[in-house]
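Why does residue order matter? Because the sequence determines the fold. Keep that principle in mind as you read this record.
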Amino acid sequence: MTVLMISSTEDPASINIKNSLLEQTAWEEHGTFYNTPVFRHTTMKNLVIVTVPDKKIRHENIDNEVKEQLHLNPRIAIFLSRHRSKMEQPTLTVHPIGNYGDAEFGGQPKTLVPAAPRMMTHLLRLIKKNLQPTDLKYQVCYEVTHHGPFLKIPTLFVEVGSTEVQWQQKEPASIIATSLLELLTTYNYEEEFPKDIPVILGIGGGHYAPRFTDVAFQKKVAFGHMIPSYHIDSGAIDWGMIEQTMQATPNVSGVYLHKKALKKSQVTQYKNWFEEKGIPIISSTELQAL
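Structure:
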């Protein structure tokens, strides 16, 4: 089983993260992919880095492609990426992928990719920890579920943002690489985490999921897929999408509603939906402190 990390030559932040991974520990070449070397960790041989020449968010089914061409069996995919924002806030982010609406930025319409909640949340905390000793002023946060590509295996994006200035800098990329190696030295897959870490969905709030991020930094919990208010307000979220969100979040045990970011009618609707299905709505006061 392989932990597949994906970089792209058209993304400077992605290349910087990859290069930092290669510099920080020992790798060996293991064939080529799109005429670019594939790197395999010399001791943790299930860790593999591949590089694509195109936009990652539109490179569909790379898990199948790697399986067929490299004869590897990816079990989780981690995309090394830039983050772009009009706000231009220096940001280090992690997020699950998929589309609650149209597939404007890769993937498939109204289709989610399996999340990796415990891997993603632990990585978020490690990034914050490794950023703190530096002089860099970066926001560290989740983003809600968005964009492609489509895969069938648990997937997360880890990103440096939000402008060309940050993409070209080596230090934020190094922090992400250090955090990834720290994560992967201890855990490779969701199943390896302690079972007492509850996995929950997040519903409500903005794109950068400030409430879910705060809860993750304070409480023993892991967020999977996160649905922002803008998709709820657009009418994109029906019970079918909620069910898909739960199915695409491994080991989900409940739901967190960001009530202050939702209309009263929306809170009532979600409470009724989840109560009818016997799915717990979890508040932060019920969660154990870190």
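The domain at 199-286 is CATH 3.40.50.10700 (Rossmann fold).
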